[in-house]
From TrEMBL:
This is Acyl-[acyl-carrier-protein] desaturase. SUPFAM superfamilies: Ferritin-like. Belongs to the fatty acid desaturase type 2 family. Fe cation 1 binds at E106, E144, H147, E230. Residues 1-21 are annotated as: Disordered. It comes from Papaver nudicaule (Iceland poppy). Pfam families: FA_desaturase_2. The lineage of its organism: Eukaryota, Viridiplantae, Streptophyta, Embryophyta, Tracheophyta. InterPro entries: FADS-2_CS, Fatty_acid_desaturase-2, Ferritin-like_SF, RNR-like. Its cofactor is Fe(2+); Fe cation. Introduction of a cis double bond between carbons of the acyl chain. One of its GO terms (biological process) is fatty acid biosynthetic process. It comes from the Eukaryota. It is found in: Plastid, Chloroplast.
Length: 367
């Protein structure tokens, strides 16, 4: 199938103007951590060396995308590609919408490295800074870089998706950035990354499970392998936040409550393909319907983190800190109740809405 031939009116319009991020962002708050707390992160250098860098894998022990893909230097290449495409035939379009959305999210990695390097006290000041925080960020990025690479090459070989539309979406997304509202504040930043790594662990785990159900064990292995990396990264980031809870419980519980009040935005929330103004919402709806990443997962992650950091048991908090503690500890059941109500309402008003996705040649998928 050729790339979508028709150019829409919107695409023609977009071609006339220089690049402008197509989606609204919030008022930008910067440097919300008091500058004296930067010292605290400097003091944690050795701790991070011993406790965080150990969660990275030596490159020589890491998997590489090529381990899961047909080998272009081998005689069997064409047969391997043929087999891959045969297996992909059994997979429905809505699954591919989720996998493409996940791949695009991974491919916007330059944005996530930038985001980490906005954080005061832990940023890579030079691009090759020897601090443990900077080494972590670079090596984390290098590990993550394999995720988008592998999914991109796999999807390309399936022949099931419109690569040009996907590539455009990636370019738009990297150009737009993200708006996680972490305010250069590492307390907020590490709450955000703890949440997000777990979210990606869950969604890649689910695409692995579904690939297996569709009979594609190789794709299941690809998604499962990526999920395992995310789990390791989650362990590291939750450990950093755990340490912050230990040395500054008040500041950390306030940061946790602040991030949850603002709601954790998904990293690819500004995605756009040049056409669909609701692309991210539509992709999220399909992911919700298929059970790849759902509102229930959001509540589950929150519940997990509250337990992981023992938030209910923290003592000696200030008045404000206690309020923040109460807020985050009571939030999971509240989100679940709201979610159940929203689901019931959606069921009542259910109209089966089909939406085209440019990623799959404008074929329509049920939301
Ligand atoms: Fe990833
Ligand atoms: Fe990740």
């Amino acid at each position: 199938m050729a790339s979508t031939l028709r150019t829409s009116a919107k695409e023609i319009e977009n071609a006339k103007k220089p690049f402008t991020p197509p989606r609204e962002v919030h008022v930008q708050v910067t440097h919300s951590m008091p500058p004296q707390k930067i010292e605290l992160f400097k003091d944690l250098e050795d701790w991070a060396d011993d406790n965080i860098l150990v969660h990275l894998k030596p490159v020589e022990k890491c998997w590489q995308p090529q381990d899961f893909l047909p080998d272009p230097a081998s005689d069997g290449f064409y047969d391997q590609v043929k087999e891959l495409r045969e297996r992909a035939k059994e997979i429905p379009d809505d699954y591919f919408v989720c996998l493409v959305g996940d791949m695009i999210t991974e491919e916007a990695l330059p944005t996530y490295q930038t985001m980490l390097n906005t954080l005061d006290g832990v940023r890579d000041e030079t691009g090759a800074s020897p601090t443990s925080w900077a080494r972590w960020t670079r090596a984390w990025t290098a590990e993550e870089n394999r995720h988008g690479d592998l999914l991109n090459k796999y999807l390309y070989l399936t022949g099931r998706v419109d690569m040009k539309q996907i590539e455009k979406t990636i370019q738009y997304l990297i150009g737009s950035g993200m708006d996680p509202r972490t305010e250069n504040n590492p307390y907020l930043g590490f709450i955000y990354t703890s949440f997000q790594e777990r979210a990606t662990f869950i969604s890649h785990g689910n695409t692995a499970r579904h690939a297996k159900e569709h009979g594609d064990l190789k794709l299941a292995q690809i998604c499962g392998t990526i999920a395992a990396d995310e789990k390791r990264h989650e362990t590291a980031y939750t450990k950093i936040s755990e340490k912050l809870f230990e040395i500054d419980p008040d500041g950390t519980v306030l940061a946790f409550a602040d991030m949850m009040r603002k709601k954790i935005a998904m990293p690819a929330h500004l995605m756009y393909d040049g056409n669909d103004d609701n692309l991210f919402e539509n992709f999220s709806s399909v992911a919700q319907r298929l059970g790849v990443y759902t509102a229930k997962d959001y509540a589950d992650i929150l519940e997990f983190l509250v337990g992981r950091w023992n938030v209910e048991k923290i003592t000696g908090l200030s008045g404000e800190g206690r309020k923040a503690q109460e807020y985050v500890c009571g939030l999971t059941p509240r989100i679940r109740r709201l979610e159940e109500r929203a689901q019931a309402l959606a069921k009542k008003n259910k109209k089966d809405r089909m939406v085209p996705f440019s990623w799959i040649f404008n074929k329509e998928v049920l939301l």
